[in-house]
Design brief:
There is one protein chain. The protein is mainly α. The protein has two domains: 274 residues, Farnesyl Diphosphate Synthase, CATH 1.10.600.10; 178 residues, no CATH class. It contains 23 helices and ten strands. A three-stranded parallel sheet has the order 1-2-10. A three-stranded antiparallel sheet has the order 5-9-6, with no helix packed on it. Strands 3-4 form a two-stranded antiparallel ribbon. Strand 7 and strand 8 form a beta hairpin. Helix 1 crosses helix 3, helix 7 crosses helix 8 and helix 13 packs across helix 14.
Length: 533
């Protein structure tokens, strides 16, 4: 038998008829590799169609898969029977494809014959490995990849592709085949019943469940990107093109607010072409090597630590978040008052618009609607000296928005106002020293006792949840620069309407677990050792 398959064979005909997203990427391959991928894809398509053929009995479909399993083994003996297996045989020999991934593909699709529910993600991961990651393992042989690292890349990318397909096809899979590829334990976590997935309108719980699936798929895309072996990048052009198409599809699902219960959300032909053109333009670019996916420990579950953990997990790392307290939030958390059962914050804390990463995390976790945004500063101050006065900013852009407010703030004397107006200039010429307290630094800058009492101390408590005597001056200066002297967006103030801890829990813990990490509450870290740095 010739080492190259004949053009226009069974494999190419099946691939052309499929209209698959995956087949689009073959256009960038040399002719022999393109024909080889078409034949291999036809095999994948054929065995997948076997299990989805509802006109045949279960035993008939099992017999067909058994015949394919025997034909895969026969390829390595040199005597396959089926025409498509005969076309696949020279591809296997030429590209040194081992039998294991081909048999794993069969095992994966065979799960669809008897398994329609997955209790945990670990169970679903096994299925995804068979129907997607194993496909990638065969593909990298055809692409002539030379490194062992390409294997890890193929596994992660296959997971990303399949998780995107699962989210897109939730309604189709359930209605036509009675299958649910969403982990049941995650459905229960969000209070989602099977009947909720049969509706055409998203319940809040379903929306949160789908958002989690989106972030898990995105995590695997980022993980795959970090695993690309640079020496093999020129061989991975087809995979990289397909990644662009699938990432655009995943983002379209998000932009459509995960409205997939009415039917699959698909890219238009024009959108696919744009993704392919964009991908081809990137193929020749120089790429900065990214850090490989790591297992990272974040110590401290305050808002900053939580935002760091979220960003790292979304970027493809496995993150373990440790917090000594029994709840997230650190020094700014909520608790349940035992007598009345009311949820209270441990102080009146605000979120500033300059907390970009924290606000992005809260929005991404689906809790942005729990925040009340105020574009202009409007804070009351009550004292025994002057009674009630209000610090109210003007519509002018920062930093001029505070000028009118300072002059109208009756709690301040003219000396206090002058000290505050001089604050930015003096702060730049006398920056905070390492470990210096905010109180000491403000004294060095010539801030009056009145300006500290009426403005700086309340601001420090609200923004940093720490008194000026212990708050770090460097952090205070950073927040002040952004919140009071930054952009209008940075100057916005957000009040929490649900309890600070509820902005993070339980969603952050679920997300970390879904991406291979975890949340460890009431777990103080007494010491740690760096093996290497």
């Amino acid at each position: 038998m010739n080492s190259s398959q004949p053009p226009g064979g069974t494999g190419e005909r099946i691939t052309r008829r499929s209209g698959s997203n995956l087949a689009l990427s073959f256009i960038c391959l040399p002719k022999e590799q393109r024909q080889a991928m078409s034949t291999f894809y036809a095999f994948c398509r054929t065995v997948d169609d076997v299990v989805d053929e509802t006109t045949q009995t279960l035993s008939e479909r099992q017999e067909q898969l058994s015949a394919w399993r025997e034909d895969i083994r026969a390829i390595y003996r040199g005597n396959p029977m089926q025409p498509l297996a005969q076309e696949l045989a020279p591809v296997v020999r030429k590209y040194l494809i081992p039998p294991e991934p081909l048999l794993e593909i069969l095992a994966g699709v065979e799960m669809d014959l008897t398994k329609t529910r997955y209790e945990t993600f670990a169970e679903l991961e096994k299925y995804c490995y068979g129907v997607a990651s194993a496909v990638g393992l065969v593909s990298i042989n055809i692409f002539c990849c030379q490194t062992r690292a390409a294997r890890d890349y193929a596994i992660a990318l296959g997971m990303a592709f399949q998780l995107t397909n699962i989210l897109r096809d939730v309604a189709y899979d359930l209605q036509k085949f009675g299958r649910i590829y969403l982990p049941l334990e995650e459905c229960r976590t969000f209070g989602v019943l099977e009947e909720d997935l049969r509706k055409t309108v998203l319940t809040p719980g379903v929306a949160r469940l789908f958002r989690l699936q989106y972030f898990r798929a995105r995590h695997y895309f980022e993980k795959a990107d970090r695993l690309i072996p640079e020496s093999d990048r020129p061989h991975l052009s087809a995979a990289l093109l397909m990644t662009g198409v699938y990432r655009d599809l995943l983002e379209k699902l998000r932009q459509n607010h995960f409205e997939v219960l009415r039917g699959p959300v698909k890219l238009t032909r024009w959108e696919k072409l744009k993704a392919l053109r964009r991908g081809r333009a990137r193929l020749g670019q120089v790429h900065e090597k990214r850090r490989a996916p790591s297992r990272i420990a974040v110590i401290g579950g305050g808002f900053a630590g939580s935002a760091a953990a979220f960003a790292l997990a979304r970027a493809g790392h496995r993150v373990e978040l440790f917090e000594a307290k029994p709840q997230l939030g650190g020094r700014a958390h909520s608790y349940r008052e035992t007598k009345t059962g009311t949820t209270l914050d441990n102080g009146q804390h605000i979120l500033m618009g300059c907390y970009h990463h924290t606000l992005e995390m809260i929005e991404a976790l689906g809790n942005g609607d729990r925040l009340e945004k105020h574009d202009r500063l409007d804070l009351a101050f009550v004292s025994s000296r002057r009674g009630r006065s209000v610090l109210r900013s003007s519509p002018l852009p920062p930093p001029f928005h505070l000028l009118g407010g300072l002059f109208g703030f009756a709690e301040l004397s003219w000396t206090d106002r002058w000290a505050i107006l001089n604050f930015p200039t003096r702060a730049k010429s006398h920056p905070p020293q390492a470990g210096e307290s905010t109180q000491n630094w403000l004294g060095r800058l010539g801030q009056t006792s009145g300006s500290i009492r009426a403005l700086w101390e309340p601001f420090c408590l609200a923004a940093l949840n720490a008194p000026i005597g212990s708050a770090d001056a460097g952090l205070f200066w950073e927040v002040t620069c952004r919140a009071l002297f930054g952009t209008a967006r940075d100057a916005a103030i957000y009040f929490d309407r649900s309890g600070l801890t509820h902005l993070l829990q339980p969603e952050l813990g679920i997300f970390l677990e879904a991406t291979g990490g975890g949340l460890h509450l009431a777990t103080p870290i007494e010491s740690f050792t760096l093996d290497s740095f």
